[in-house]
Amino acid sequence: MSKHLTPNASVEITALEFHIRYGPRHFRTAGTDSYIVPVMPQYHNMLFPESDHQLSLLPGRTTFGNSIRKAYLCRAPIKKISPGANLFFYRSHDYKAATVVGVAEGCIRSFDAVEIARYVGKRTVYSFNEIKTMCALGEVLAILFRQAGAFSKPVGLSDLVNASILKAAPQSIMCLMESKAEWLTKQSKPLR
Predict the structure, then answer these.
(1) pLDDT of amino acid 185
(2) CA 25, CA 29: separation in Å to the nearest integer?
(3) Distance of CA 18 to the CA centre of its chain
(4) Residue 184, strand partner residues
(5) How far is CA 39 from CA 21, 49, 136, 171, in A?
(6) Which runs of consecutive H residues, i.e. helices, occur in the chain?
(7) Can you list the positions of beta strands (E) in the chain?
(8) Could you check whether the bond before residue 170 is cis, i.e. omega within 30 degrees of 0?
(9) What's the pLDDT score for residue 192?
(10) 73 vs 189, higher pLDDT
(11) How many angstroms separate the CA atoms of 163 and 36, rounded?
């Protein structure tokens, strides 16, 4: 068994296939949708334990925190996120910075808690009862993604505002222009 570690630019494959073939740390920004995805600190700690400033004595005690394949649930108004789209996770409240990059595998929207729970499996931080509560409040967007890496140096809100990527801290998922996604990727390469 072997894996190519150096991306071959001449091979024509989708952004998701590129990430699967050459990842986890390699992903495409050119010709690919990108989004800023806000995450509250308590969920960020569970979903991305390795990106915390102070690591726990027992990091990664959960299946979703200890894997590359994860799920993000929200009630954002965005309708669809394409497979291969880049997800720049923004830790709100305390860090106020882009900290982790992921690549979307797919998504669904539903009011049905059972459908959402089946779709995300053990890849989410939410229990079934929490999913039921979310669905009772409105339609839920469930995004399956692959973690590409944690930034070695998070990109803070002031840098994101100065680069005209954001005007203020994001309250919901926001689409990024390709040039902004490339800038964000160049500012802080994910850890190898």
Answers:
(1) 87
(2) 13
(3) 17
(4) none
(5) 28, 13, 21, 9
(6) 15-22, 41-47, 113-120, 128-137, 157-162, 178-187
(7) 34-39, 69-74, 86-91, 97-110, 140-156, 174-176
(8) no
(9) 42
(10) 73
(11) 14
Distance of CA 143 to the CA centre of its chain: 9
Q: Work out the average pLDDT over 151-166.
A: 92
Q: How far apart are CA 130 and CA 142, in angstroms?
A: 13
Helix (H, G, I), strand (E, B) or coil at 120: helix
pLDDT (tens digit, 9 = 90+) per residue, 58-69?
Answer: 555 555 555 789
Residue 1, pLDDT above cutoff 50: yes
Distance CA 22, CA 40 (A): 30
**CA angle, residues 165, 173, 181, in degrees to nearest 5:** 35
Tokens for 170, please give them: 């994001």
Buried b (16+ CB within 10 A) or exposed e, 15-51: bbebbeebbbebbbbeebbbbbbbbeeebbbbbbbeb
The DSSP code sequence of 125-138 is S--HHHHHHHHHHS
Q: Would you say 180 and 34 are in contact if contact means Cβ atoms under 8 Å apart?
A: yes
Residue 61, judged by CB atoms within 10 A of its CB (0-12, 13-18, 19+), counts as: exposed
How high is the pLDDT of residue 4? 64
CA distance 96 to 166: 12
As a whole number of Å, the end-to-end CA separation of the chain is 21
Of the chain, the percentage scoring pLDDT greater than 90 comes to 63
